[in-house]
Each structure stands twice: as structure tokens, then as C-alpha cells.
Amino acid sequence: PPEPLPPDRFKNFKDALNAGADALKRNRADEAKTQAQRAVQEAATLDGDARAQAGQLLFKVTLAAGDVSATQAALEAWRSACGPERAESCRSQANAALTQLAKKDPKNKALARDAAEAVDDEVCAAKADRAPKPQPCEATALSRARKSGDGWLTAKLLLAQALRDDDNDKKLINAEKACTAPQCASLRKKALQKLVARAKADNKPDEALQYALREVVVGNENLSPQERRFTRTATLEAACVAYDKAHKPGECRAVEKKT
Prior knowledge:
Blueprint: H1 11-25, H2 29-43, H3 48-65, H4 68-81, H5 87-104, H6 109-130, H7 138-148, H8 151-163, H9 169-177, H10 185-201, H11 205-220, H12 234-246, H13 251-258
Helix pairs in contact: 1-2, 1-3, 2-3, 3-4, 4-5, 5-6, 6-7, 6-8, 7-8, 8-9, 8-10, 9-10, 10-11, 11-12
């Protein structure tokens, strides 16, 4: 007989998301809020797209209720939930919604300031990611990200700074550890890939292998236990070649199995 299909781990999330959207459409505020909060909870262990959809729904529900404070909190939660898939565009949408919210309440100077700073800091992180030299805005943006607990933005800025410094692996290690949430997986993998490359260049095959194995672990963290599998990434393949060359053929595979 054919093997049974694996359970759809998105089912509860989809049910809550659809129920919340339907309740919002029918002006059933309490039901919409309950289902939106349920969707957020269900999405927490899924992927970035699910977290973004749940966060956006909760924002719409609180906005419809006319609670500015709750709406701002929902926006911040939405932005924090973005990633690793399409993190930048998701965060941009949340910040645009925050800007629109501030325009609707022009007397709320604190909200206007928060909206402006959120956009400025995101733009700064994008500039820092591309610039060959430090940007004047980085210190302020990093300080605000740390103060607000925005792990993704903190990691993004630290990674940009670390990639400009070819002689300081500690900065890369700190950037990789700055945010261990599922949203930050892409940033962590980028840091680990650079650490592998540097270790190989410095003829440190053992270090390179450990960083490569860690990259595989990070890539699996956003998956359910049933979906997790040991995957040989291109980074790991290259690290294994160098490791076996330094030790003996097949030694890398033995280390993989122990890991």
C-alpha cells in the first residue's frame, strides 16, 4: 500500500488565518482578533511567509478596532516576524503601514518619530550592506535596534560591518549569534559561509568543517522534525574536500555522522 501522506503542519495556521480574515470581513471584531492571535501562534514555528501573513492579519484587525497602541504593537510584531524568506520586502511593508498609521494620527508625535526612525534604520542597514566603508547612520541604527530588541536588524548591521573587516572573525561570530530566531537564518548562513571561506584560506580545515556543519543545522531549524534531514550544502562539500585532504579520505563523512 502507498505510504500515508505526511500531516500538513500548515493546516491549523491556514484555518485560523482564513477564519480571521472572514470574521474581519463580517465585522466580527472579537472573533477576528481571536483567530488572528491564533494564526500568529500557529505561524511561529512555520516559515517566514506564514509569520508575515499572520502578522499582517493581526495588524488589520487592530486597525479596524481603532486601537492605535495595539495597532502599533501589532505592526512591530509583524516586522519582527519577517524572514528568512523575503525579509526585506516584508519589513518594508510593515514600515510602510506604520508610516500610514502615523499620518492618520498627526497629533501623535511619538508615533511619527517611531515611523520615521524605523524607515531610516532600515534604509541604513541596506546601505551598510552594500557600502565598502562604514556609514554615518550605522551606530545610531544599531543602538536603536538593540534597544528595541530587533534581532534581525541588529544581525543585519553587525554582519555588514563584519564583512568589511577581513581580519576579524570575532565580528562574524558575533553577527551570527546576534539573532538565533528562525527569521535570521539567512543572515546566519551568510556569516557562517564567510567563516568557512576564511578558515579554508587560513588553512584551518577543522574550523571550516565545524562552521559548515553549523550552516546545515541553521538551515534545518525552520523545519519540522519530520522534514529535517542532513543536507550536504555546497559549503559543506568544499569544506569536506579540504578536511579529507588534511586528514584522510572519508574522515569528513565520519565527523558528519557523529554530528
